From TrEMBL:
InterPro entries: Carboh/pur_kinase_PfkB_CS, PfkB_Carbo_kinase, PfkB_dom, Ribokinase-like
Annotated signal peptide: none
Protein name per Swiss-Prot or TrEMBL: Carbohydrate kinase
Highest taxon of source: Bacteria
Keywords, in A-Z order: ATP-binding, Kinase, Nucleotide-binding, Transferase
GO MF term set: kinase activity
Enzyme Commission number(s) of this protein: 2.7.1.-
One protein family per Pfam: PfkB
Source organism (scientific name): Seohaeicola nanhaiensis
Gene3D superfamilies assigned to the protein according to its UniProt record, in alphabetical order: 3.40.1190.20
Length: 305
């Protein structure tokens, strides 16, 4: 199983009602949940470790996960509120305002960390869950604990406007990148993480990962391997509705492509070939292309590719 570790929240997506009034529609979202749902829909075994509320939104998130074949048995349930992310769409691109104080997701502690069954061989981290303690430190501890025993995948998915302690956040991310095997990162995230760094992707690999994949929106993706070779894939032409969850779907496509090829392990990633990686990234681009063609975080099912 591929266990996605991080936030499950409600994306409040703007919409126009038939009478012309503006409204927000609640959609299941959050980086970890988006990735888990996309993995489940694409046909690989997915699980979710997060904090889930017993409130109405928490129930919505649980149903959304289960409908996409995501195992939520390791999720920690509580009476704390669900995190809400109000989305502003500007030229199809999403900006977020988060309401997260004392939420079910944010208040996870190291005492909530589960003993993982042997069936889980890959852990995926990223998103706003890595910004604020105690949950951020809980996820970082889990990554350190399992590094070397399971494949560690990371997508920082940085929301800089939500960061209140930049020094602590940067230190946490750097520590997790050092134990990661695979990193997926956007151009904006790489610029924020390693500002004014010449050849930032090489610098990222020097931290420890065997593979780094840089997503560049309509310009496709560039992947660089520790052995100094790289491959590129183009994005899929499509009519873009919005980009909510696009990066999460691309990451899920990468993971499922690698899993189906038997390449989702530390040793396999270190020895992956350019041709094999190109096929994996092409599959990820196809999945992301479907996601951006419709509103909200709504990744494709396998039959839609």
């Amino acid at each position: 199983m591929i266990l996605c570790c991080g936030e499950a929240l409600i994306d409040m997506i703007p919409a126009s009602l038939p009478d012309g009034l503006e409204a927000f529609i609640p959609h299941a979202g959050g980086a970890a949940l988006n990735v888990a749902i996309a993995i489940g829909r694409l046909g690989a075994p997915a699980g979710l470790f997060t904090g889930l509320s017993h409130d109405m939104f928490g129930r919505q998130l649980a149903i959304a996960a289960q409908e996409s074949k995501v195992d939520i048995s390791l999720a920690v349930r509580s009476d704390r509120p669900t995190t809400l992310a109000f989305v502003e769409l500007i030229n199809g691109n999403a900006r977020y305002v988060f309401h997260d104080e004392n939420s079910a997701g944010r208040m996870l502690t190291e005492q909530d960390l589960p003993d993982l069954p042997q069936s889980i061989d890959t852990l995926v981290f990223g998103g706003i869950s890595l910004i604020h303690a105690p949950a951020a430190d809980t996820y970082a501890q889990l990554a350190r604990r399992e590094a070397g025993r399971r494949c560690i995948v990371m997508d920082p998915n940085i929301r800089s406007g939500f960061v209140t302690d930049e020094a602590a956040y940067r230190a946490r991310l750097m520590g997790m990148l050092k134990v990661a095997d695979i990193v997926k990162i956007s151009v904006d995230d790489l610029d924020w993480l390693l500002p004014e760094t010449e050849d930032a992707l090489t610098a990222l690999l020097a931290l420890g990962p065997a593979l780094a994949v840089l997503t560049r929106g309509s310009e496709g993706a560039l992947a660089m391997h520790r052995d100094k070779w790289h491959v590129e894939v183009a994005s899929r032409p499509t009519m873009v509705v919005d980009t909510v969850g696009a990066g999460d779907t691309f990451l899920a496509g990468m993971i499922v492509g690698a899993w189906e090829s038997g390449l989702l392990s530390r040793n396999a990633v270190e020895n992956i070939t350019p041709n094999a990686l190109r096929e994996i990234l092409s599959f990820a681009a196809a999945a992301a292309g479907v996601s951006v063609s419709r509103a909200g975080a709504n990744p494709p099912w396998r039959h839609e590719l």
